[in-house]
Amino acid sequence: MVRTAKQWWLAFSEVAREEDTRLPVKARHLPPRIAAGAFIVNSGLGKWSADDETAAQLHGFAVGAYPFLAKLKPRDFVRLLSVTEMALGSALLLPIVPSAVAGAGLAAFSGGLLGLYARTPGMRKEGSPFPTQQGIALAKDAWMMGIGLGLVIDDLTDRPDRSEPQD
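User: That's the sequence. What structure does it adopt?
Assistant: Structure tokens below.
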């Protein structure tokens, strides 16, 4: 049987309607993903062209909390951090990346930053999790942890029951 172009189009249209062709991102995930993603991409872009003094400062700060980073040269560390931030920010901004995946990356990244906050002397008030004036810049990264965990939890718990027949 030879099909006409119209018959092929109608058959294709029917299949496309039956398949779920929506993006893996819920509309309610867009505001936090865009806010965090744009912030992180911008931070990564700024670090890409960091001078040697800035690279040494960032590297020294990170090594204080994570001694294994001393194996890296300051310039290499900042470039790696820059690429990581740009990749994570892009994953948050691109709606083809599922929210659970982007959220897990954001939670992991912010966990590292909160570890820096917790391990660096002078960032927290004595005997308290609350920041000193110097610690506010890192303590604010708690909002990224909240966004990341929220994306993961919402994406994993808001799935249709696969055992029920689909309409």
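The longest helix spans residues 99-119.
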